[in-house]
Predict the structure.
Amino acid sequence: MDFLANALDLLEKNAVDELKEAIIGADHDTLNIAFMELFAAMMNKYDDMASEQQCTQPLLAAIMHLNKNAHVKPKEMYIALMDVYEAVRAPSAVQLVLEMLLELLGEMNNNCMDEIRDHVLPSLLQERIMKQLVDEDIARVDVVHICGLFIRLFRSSGCKKADLLESLISEVVSCLPQTSAGFGALIDSSFTSYVDLGQNPASSTLLIASSQHSARPCIPVVYSADYRFERCLPALIRSLSVRFSNSHNISLVLEVLQGFIPAISELSLSRHRMPLFMEFFCALLRTCGNVGLGDIHDECLKAFVSSLQRFEPIAQLLILRRLIRLIKIDHLKVSLESQVMGWLIDLYRYRMQKYPIFKAELGFLWAELTELRYTELHESVHFYTALLVLAQFQALHRINKELLREVDLRVLGPLQQQLADWTTLTTTDSGNDERVQSLPFLQFTMLQTRNYVNQFLSKER
């Protein structure tokens, strides 16, 4: 039996120690001839064992002996690594291939380096790292490790594609728990890479947050608080909009906001600066609709209100109206839309008590809400409750009788009919517990609202 056949047979039988001895005892020419097929077989075996969480250390030692003793040319080794890279799946196997590739970089020609920069790095980010991020079965420390290898390969290959690095930091690293082993070193290498590329670290929420309490913050504290907030906007918007957004990267956004917002005086930002911030409010509102964020969901709501409060009253009014309009015409997609709309109406109503402009412009809000309807009762309770409470507030505070008369005709009347229709549906489909529980509350609120409205409308001027 020749060397390759014997080696493959030993590998098949899991006789790793014997395989290692056979490799050590073979001459360079024999190993060179067998290398491509044997290396692929051993790496595939390593991948299988790693996937099954078996001990891979003996096999790894055998692979290292094969690499050391075969004396294959750098080009052949590169081809072997690329073939294996396409095949392996286990995180530790991918990491092993990347570590071998890094060791080989100094001996590779320009064509190979071009392929790494143009194809390997983008593929590594999109097809490996992004998928590992959303795979909950893969330990976070493994994702941190492969991100570190990506940055090393990025720097060592001389890659200048800043968008790749920004995607890694904003869409992956920011979404990892900061308590993971090696996370601090990953932040340091990310910061260094940004600076080396001539990129502004302030374009990354992660780097802003990590430097916020350091001696050298990304955004110097000599700037005014509102200007620093403005400088952060692109990074914050990107973090709020990433595909795999989770509690980790949203926590970074909140950390940055908590570092800047309190230093900005309430009502100090003028309406002229509102266009710069609309995209930020849209992105933050989408996050506020994500109840899957758990404990930090309430913090997102508070951050939205706190950010809004920095603007002068007319700007706050325009922002709220604009957000309601964008949701209504489907230009702004939010989860739990009716609940979010109800919350925005509540924010508007609360400001009617503090700022006269909100009372004066109430007709524009009702114009947006008049034709808005939701078909599912249990999903729209918050919206219709907010609508009814707004009408109650208007009646009790004697605000614009003629407007309220129109509201009674165009909003409350049709809504009362819709409640009657839902009552009929609930009677015929009594098994729908959510409808049964929601309907009495809305019916009572409607009755109360019509009473207040009728009292106001029936009074003489």
Summary: The mean pLDDT is 90.
